Structure formats: C-alpha cells, structure tokens
Amino acid sequence: MAAEPLSNGATHLSVPGRYILPVHKRPSSSVNGKWALPVVDLGGDDDGTIAEEIVRAGREFGFFQVVNHGVPEEVMGAMMRAAEEFFALPADEKMKYYSNDGKKLPRFHTSLRNGTGEEVLYWRDCLKLGCHLPEWPDKPRGLGAALEPYTAAVRAAARRVLRLAAVGLGLEEEHFEGSLSGGGMMNVNHYPPCPDPRLTLGAGPHCDPGLVTVLMENVGGGLQMLLHGDGDAGGGGMMWVDVDAAPGALVVNFGHQMEVVSNGRLRSAEHRAVTGARAARTSLATFVWPEPGCTVAPAQELVLAAGEGPLYKPYSYGEFLAVYVAEGGVREAVMAHLKH
Questions:
Q1: Domain Fe2OG dioxygenase: where (predicted)?
Q2: What is the third-level CATH fold of 12-293?
C-alpha cells in the first residue's frame, strides 16, 4: 500500500513505525557540530583564481557555496514561495500528480528508502520537475511563472561552475558542455515537522548521480555532509556535520560523474537530510547530468598528464542510472561498479 504523503495534512504525535530507522542508521548522537562551507564568489573578475577555489573545495569536500551567482533575489523568493504553496495545497490537488513511476514528470511522491526492499520511509515529500519545463502543475497559479526564470538562472550558474571547474582541472573550458551536461531535473523537497527527529531521516546518505547539484533552501539546519578527516578540515576518520550557508547563497555539490571525469581529483560529496521538530523545511535541488546515451569516462588529458591509468571504466549514463537505482545510491556500492 502506498504511503500517504506527509504534507496531506495528517497530524502525527509520534513517528509511525514505517519511518523509524534501525538504531545504527538513526541520526542521533552522530553529528559533530556545524561546518562553514567554503565560499566561492562567482562575480569576481579573475576566473583563474575562482577556478582554483572551486577545484580546491571539490577536492577537499565536494561541497561549497556560491555568492554573486547571478540568480536574482526576487527570482529565488518567487520560486521558494511557489514551492511552499504547492505543498500547502489541498490533498486532492497534489494527488493529481502522485505517482510511483520514476520516469514520470511532473511527479509528486513521498520518499521510499531504497536498497533494502523494506517498507521504511524517509520523512520527506517531493515534487520532481523536468528542467526543460515541458509541463508543470497548474497550481499554485504562480508556479510556472516562477519556474522559468529560476531554472534558466540556476542552470546558467551551474554552467559557469562547470566551465570554471574544467579550467581549474586543466581541461578545455567547454569540456562539460554538450551531452555531458545536457540532462537534468529538479527535486522540490518538503520536510514537515517531525515528532521525534532522532528516529528518522529526511533523506538517507547518498551521493548525487550527476555532475553538479545546485541547492536553495528556505531554512537551514537540515543538510548534513560526511566530512572526511583527510582534508584541511583536520582530524581523522569521518563525521556528519551540519552544513550552513549564508543567506542568499546557493549550495553546490559535485556528484558521481564529476568524480569519474576528474579521475578522482574531485570528490562526489556524500550527504543526507535530517528532520526538525519545529519548522518545515523546503529545498530545491537542481541537478545537471549527462544525457542517457552519453559515454562518461575519465578525461584523457588528466590521465595522460598524471601518467596514471584511468581509475574508472567508460559507461553510458543510462547504464550508470540503472546501477545507481539498484544500489540505492549507496556510495561505496555504486563506485565499485565503476572502478577498473
């Protein structure tokens, strides 16, 4: 039986059993404070310096925040208001778009935990939209008008990040253009207040499947990343940390395809979402990824320049997605399929 979306109005005084994670997968007692994301100013004049900053953040963390990104504040505000209004619609309006078909767009659904075969749910509802906007829900009335300028501006910011990442890696500026970045989608995520955030997650640990993800959120405190102790962060081992971004900034992270194309020089960032007891959180994640038939492989220039063999074998992005879904997005399992 399909679960009822959380935003449909049911009041939960406790966490229903289907949302409760096994003890070792719960978020309680696993966070070691907050962490300030590296800040990259995309509005600067020195592209070489900006490229170095992007590659440094990608190598050490896979996460950073961008300011002066070119997405107007009023465009961001209109898009967030429309997103919040969608989840506040009456249930019958939202359920017109409800589907468990992962290929359908637009698609409204509640979040099933993948990779286990168990009926354990994450504390999240989601509206999936195609980035090329062939269709969107007709309510709320301002959604379509907000989506077009927001999507165009965010994808332009993502393209600038990809061009600068290419420069910082020593590749041609256009390396990521064309079919390698021709696909994409937007997840509009909604995390209602949770009666006991210690027992469940909004989204489980995963790396994003594409090249780069650009995130906007209405309130902070939900995104966490797995911080590795082998970078400038210091310390040893790994720990989950809360990720904070400045007001008006966009959060950027690299996905599996960037790690492969860079031959391991840039990190695909593992992250998750936790829930909160008091306030609902809404976030918009815009994914840029290859077209399904695109062949993905380490850049030859990087392999030859380093005098090392490719760490990953070539594959089509469609093949990768089948693996990603089958493995539930679990980083180690997915990467094991890609390595030589």
A1: 181-292
A2: Jelly Rolls (2.60.120)
